[in-house]
Amino acid sequence: MNNPNRDQGNDAAVEEPLPLPKALARRVSREKVYVAIPNDDDRNGGYNVVLCNNVIVPYEKAGDDYCSYHRLEDTLVGDDFHADVEDWGLGVEKGNEAVKCLALSTQHPYCQDRTADTAYWADDLRNPCNALYGKAFRAWVLKRYSRCSCSNQTVQWRKTERMCFIKAVSITERRESSRKHFFGENPFSEFASMQLLHFVDDSNVQSHRRHIVEQYDLLFEDETNIYCVMPVYDGELQEFIPPNDKFPINQVKTIISQILRGLQFMHAMVSPCRVVQLYESN
Amino acid sequence: MSQINKYTDVKRKAGLCHRDISFENLLLFGEEVKLIDLGLSRRIPFHVNENGFSSPRKVRTPQDIFYGKLLYAAPELFSSTAGDGVDLFAADVWSVGIIAYILLQGNLRSFKTQLQCNPSIHDCDRFHMGLRHELFTGNFVGLGFLRSLLNFNPTQRLSVNEALRHDFLKDGEPIKLQSPTITFEMMMSSS
Asked: Which of residues 51-80 of B touch A (CB under 8 A)?
């Protein structure tokens, strides 16, 4: 997966260090957060864990079968979510620990500096597009210019050639909507699913992950929004319909097999054990 | 590190079903198709039986059976009662079958028109009846493959792995499509 944190060497610097506006710098400068998901298939046993800054934090006994994505909301909004949890028929014994996990996530585990290596600069915040439960806008990927992460100097960023788009999901709007529309689409589920797929370590289907949408980053930078950073794609497949309304048969085969490969990657068994082992090796 | 060691003992197996596979949720990136929009996806645990074979757990709760777009939804999702449960992985394969059907038939534009009319469950029933008739009497390339994907009995439907091994998919060619003018607004309309 093309995580910008991994392939820094491919990002050629095209401009001099770019001092960000203060508000935006605060928005993008914290450590990125992974809130993951492993849940168990046993009603009475097992644990959920949360990954915070590459540290695995257990936070409660599992309560139900496949409720893990809703635990993400629990992590985000703390006590307010307890009513929703009851609505879903799930038991939460130690909900407050989830809030502690979130507090952990804003600090780097090895030093006090909260600045990440990668940031995102949305140069046109005035004209966002509407998205589900929020807004979306294009942004540039930035790399940290000042190397000393623990000093008190002002952090500067270098603009790369890579663009991304950022979906800002309003936590409040989502909570209001979840109370009204029980069956609706859940952007938090989407983020959590993408993270789960990101951490799958299965060599048999590894190459097929490229047929699933990627998530560069998930940022919890303020109390009102979650920012999901994604790549910019060429467009929807249906916009490429040939004039005669018919794709060549051999290309149809490729399209179908690529969809199936992506689906194979999703349907493949996901074991939290593998997630844990991934971090052991790091 | 001790916490990490503790959790290596936990063995859990599950898969992720998409539940909203449709043309709107397919993006093109170079020569590759990408599945997007995992907002309705669900993590489904697997059962392992006494012989060591694993199978996905069937879903019974209505909020999990609810599907994204009706015309792509498998017929068992409409007929199932809460007691029976639904295999959502097989339902995902049905949705891929619908996409394959549209691509092979070459009637994407008319299908889009149907979708824009906000179909009801009765429309879906009619669509399934027509589909059943066409799969039975039709004569076009890939019909055998489609019959396997669009099997009305979910237990006899191909799994994703079986579908990928099907002879029909063996000689595909790289996707070379003429790029339309894509605007940021078009991209966001799928979100």
From this structure: 54, 57, 62-64, 66, 68
Three-state secondary structure call for residue A40? coil
- Of the ranges A86-100, B121-135, B144-158, B165-179, which one carries the lowest mean pLDDT score? A86-100
What's the mean pLDDT in A54-62? 34
Cα–Cα distance measured from residue B27 to residue A43, given in angstroms and rounded to the nearest whole number? 37
User: What distance in Å separates the CA atoms of residue A156 and residue A138, rounded to the nearest whole number?
Assistant: 20
Domain spans in chain B, listed from the N-terminal domain onward: 12-183
pLDDT above 50 for A77: no
Q: Which residue of B has its CA nearest to A70?
A: B42
Point out the residue among A196, A210, A246 whose CB comes nearest to the CB of B16: A196
From the list B8, B13, B32, the residue facing A211 with the nearest CB is B32
pLDDT band, very low/low/confident/very high, at B148 (cuts 50, 70, 90): very high
Nearest to A192 by CA among A228, A158, A168, A225: A228
Residue B51 gets which letter from DSSP?
T
Chain B nearest C-alpha distance from A118 (Å): 23
B108: contact with A, CB 8 A cutoff = yes
Query: What pLDDT score does B92 carry?
Result: 92
Domain boundaries of chain A, sorted by first residue: 1-32+115-234+242-282, 34-105
CATH top-level class for B12-183? mainly alpha
Task: Please answer whether residues B26 and B33 qualify as being in contact, where contact means their C-beta atoms are separated by less than 8 angstroms.
Answer: yes
The beta-carbon neighbor of B4 closest among A47, A56, A240 is: A56
Q: What angle do CA A31, A216, B187 make, to 5 degrees?
A: 135
